[in-house]
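Ligand-bound model needed. manganese (II) ion.
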Amino acid sequence: MKIHEYQARNLLEQAGIPTLPGDVATTPSEARKIAERFTGQVVVKAQIHAGGRGKAGGVKVVSTPDEAGVAAASMLGRRLVTHQTPSGGVLVRKVLVAAAADIADELYVAVVMDGDLGVPVVMASTEGGVEIEHVAETTPEKIMRVPGDPLIGFSPYRARDMAYALGVPAELVRPTADLIVKLYRLFVDKDCSLVEVNPLVVTRPSKPGEVARIIALDAKVTLEDDALFRHPELQALHDPDQEEPLELRAAAAELSYVKLEGGRVGCMVNGAGLAMATMDITKWAGADPANFLDVGGSADEKRVEEAYRILVDDKDVEVILINLFGGILRCDAAARGIVAGAKATRHDLPIIVAMRGTNADEGLKILGDSGLKVSTAADLAGAAEGLKTILASMPAKGAHHAQGGGR
Ligand code: GDP
Ligand code: MN
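Prediction:
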């Protein structure tokens, strides 16, 4: 589960990591009032579950409360499009108004789970503020990776090594090492899948006698869904507004639905292995999946029908590929669910169905007799061929949308 920056900043603060004070506003006048609490510059930041806001007009440093109101008005109620959002952007309903930092240096630090090592690793780089994906691609040697230890955590001396390597001023080595250890502890304590601070900044002292500080200026925290039951206080941070409506509907029906950008094939499967195989054959047939929906092993007719309805409510879907293995979910029940879903929705869509296992013959017969545009297959290879044939008879992707006046 993703959470907002302002919520992540609160978690960081509770963990003893320095951030700058701020509050969230839902209107420009609220934003102005919050800005009045601070003396110097403030920063107004769109709160969406995506990064890249800086380059997209979603982060503005301003000098007066009135300017903060204007900046908030430019963001609230608009859709912000960044390289991390879907192409249509995400609606901004809240902005964070916070004291701004005078920045001397922008660094990067994150904790992620390393799937190969099976432990959390701390990643850090002097190249903060910019897209870390770009650094990883072009100059991977500029990203340090240091694994933690599941038993002892992240040892302070390794954190100190990292702080030195980040090149922070001598007096900030200790606070930076301390911050790294606390970030790691936060990652473990809250069962996160990602804790990322980009940028982590070294501030520029504004008056004589003031000292440089190390501060988490941006914060991204993603929580591991499967561990959320252990953290009721974190569950409360869920913001359904930020999620795809179809993903919410799928979650309510206990279906796993994942939207994929740029494809035209809607995929229904039961089980992760079939999901992978189904996406592979979709690509083999020359198309991309628009989504995939896993109904799970113990679905029934009703759940398959709802799954089908969710699948076709994705307007990118032009053809449907269903790949099921009958077990607890019998194929005949699945077939009835598919037919019910198709008859109630876009019944003219071509459907390819591969079924094996319990009552497969019965299921395939129900589909064949349904009057829908179904081609059935007994196995994956048959489904792949079927998809290829159907794709060959369809206009190129997007062509019929254009005829309809575009979208
Ligand atoms: P993101 O683009 O969505 O990751 O948003 P960030 O919070 O990382 O902000 C993007 C960039 O805006 C940062 O890299 C900074 O350069 C700049 N920025 C953000 N907050 C401040 C601030 O308080 N003061 C100054 N001077 N710049 C800031
Ligand atoms: Mn950032």
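Residues 244-402 form a domain with the Rossmann fold fold (CATH 3.40.50.261).
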